[in-house]
Amino acid sequence: MSARKLRLGMVGGGRGAFIGAVHRMAARLDGCYDIVAGAFGANPAQSIKDGVALGVAPDRAYPDFRVMAAQEAQRDDRIDAVSIVTPNHTHFAIAHEFLAAGCHVICEKPMTTSLVDAAELLRLTRAAGRIFVVTHNYSGYPMVRAARELVGSGALGALRVVQVEYPQDWLSTRVEATGQKQASWRTDPALAGVAGSLGDLGTHAHHLLRFITRLEVEAVCADLSNMVAGRALDDNAHVMMRLSDGARGMLWASQICPGNDNALRIRVYGEKAGLEWAQEHPDQLRFTPLGEAPRILCRGGATASEAARHATRLPPGHPEGYIEAFAQVYADTAELIHAQIDKRAPNPLATVVPGVVDGLIGVGFLEACVASAAQNGRWVSVRIDCPDLLSLSR
Ligand code: NAI
Predict the structure, then answer these.
(1) 194 vs 383, more confident
(2) Ligand 1 centroid distance, CA of 117 (Å)
(3) Which amino acids bring their CB within 6 angstroms of ligand 1?
(4) Cα-to-centroid distance, 40 and ligand 1 (Å)
(5) For residues 163 and 185, what is the distance between their CA atoms, to the nearest angstrom?
(6) Are strands 284-289 and 295-298 parallel, antiparallel or unpaired?
(7) Separation between Cα atoms, residue 249 and residue 216, nearest integer Å
(8) Residue nearest to ligand 1 atom 2, measured at CA
(9) CA–centroid distance, residue 298 to ligand 1 (Å)
(10) Domain 141-316+356-374 adopts which CATH fold?
(11) What is the pLDDT of residues 174-195, one digit of tens each?
């Protein structure tokens, strides 16, 4: 990897925001980036104030993202990449602006609020020749990387069944009516997009399924419900899935299940073995070969896989977690950007980081689920009407 730190800008993530601060920790953990510019909020004066408070030079704390993209493009020391950590409805316009300005993009999920916009970002990314990463951060956990490798090795045999779920409880009451910022935009279709819990959590579960199994969702039968009165978007989603290679799956996303914080869990069953991983105990992967005693595979040590070691920073027994997994996405993105700068092939272990194609497939999944639910759970094909798709690896 080149010695130079990459120059990172951020859009969103000002005072009171949630995920922007996580991105800053993740970007800094491995020393790959300096955060040098930003438009940290929708209010111009506050955006500048927040940028200065976060240690950005006053001339690079911008009133809004359009000014930021235009002014950064004029600088010799312009940002290499931008992190987009704003509510969903803004992702497209911001990503569009920075791709046009020649930046690499690290974008929150869901990538856009429509498949049409997602396809446009894919085309723009190709035309600009930039790296585009979508922060499905759970793919950065060592034992998720190990699970993907294990499935890829054929240890489970042909895959038959996948169960994936992401329940939370924080929207069990009408929190949005209290003015709570994160709840307010997530329950508003104009800001969150067509899906609620499914867009917020189901997109992560969907990506995790695809990441570990390398299967695609071909058709869905979805039941989306708004359990809390007065809510316009789903707060509970059940989706049955027909997967590639004849496998079957079920996905459950919910924000109304008391006792659940971030209970993302996946179980994969093949003809020879099964595996199970839960994000609240991320260092352990349960591997169950048929007819043998279950094994608990762990992150570190001599028995860890190469993919797990690549995403590991500490010896086993020292817990790693959410920030480290998020940082892995940033570190792998840095490797892809440096490889492009240096005109060399990237480390193959870094190339698994979720890209614009994954973002597009995620949005296509959401739209198919919403269409299915609107037709009382009719089976709907997940069609990605984008001819460029198959020729793009990222
Ligand atoms: P938030 O409401 O806490 O923060 C959003 C920030 O964006 C605020 O600072 C707001 O002022 C700013 N903002 C809004 N419009 C803007 C604009 N036009 N220009 C500049 N800044 C603007 O929201 P939260 O929870 O941090 O979510 C942000 C995004 O991150 C969403 O897309 C969400 O789906 C995603 N997310 C991803 C997570 C993950 O695990 N990868 C976890 C939480 C959120």
Answers:
(1) 194
(2) 18
(3) 11-14, 17-20, 39, 41-42, 65, 85-88, 90, 108-109, 135, 137, 181-182, 185, 200
(4) 10
(5) 29
(6) antiparallel
(7) 11
(8) 182
(9) 33
(10) Dihydrodipicolinate Reductase; domain 2 (3.30.360)
(11) 999 999 999 999 999 999 999 9
Ligand 1: nearest atom to the Cα of 199:
34
Measured in whole angstroms, the distance separating CA 27 from the mean position of its chain's CA atoms is 15
Q: What is the pLDDT of residue 1?
A: 45
Domains of the chain: which residue ranges? 6-137, 141-316+356-374
pLDDT digits (tens, 9 = 90+) for 87-141: 999 999 999 999 999 999 999 999 999 999 999 999 999 999 999 999 999 999 9
CA of 181 to the centre of ligand 1 (A): 10
Dihedral angle of Cα 200, 206, 208, 212, to the nearest 10 degrees: 180
Calculate the CA 121 to chain-centre distance: 16
Give tens-digit pLDDT for 197-219. Answer: 999 999 999 999 999 999 999 99
* Backbone torsions φ then ψ of 342, nearest 5 degrees: -85, 0
Instruction: Name the residue at shortest CA distance from atom 42 of ligand 1.
Output: 19
Helices (H), the chain: 19-29, 44-53, 65-73, 91-100, 115-128, 142-152, 181-186, 189-192, 197, 203-213, 306-310, 322-342, 356-374
Fold (CATH) for 6-137: Rossmann fold (3.40.50)
Residue 389 pLDDT grade (very low, low, confident, very high; cuts 50, 70, 90)? low
How remote is the CA of residue 345 from the centroid of ligand 1, in Å?
33
Q: In the predicted model, what is the mean pLDDT of residues 49-61?
A: 98
Pocket test for ligand 1, best of 10, 11, 15, 18 (most atoms within 8 A of CB): 18
Quick check: 284 pLDDT over 50?
yes
Structural tokens at position 187: 């329950």
Kindly give, in sequence order, each residue whose CB lies less than 8 Å from that of residue 368, ignoring residues fewer than 6 positions away.
217, 219, 220, 222, 380, 381, 382, 383
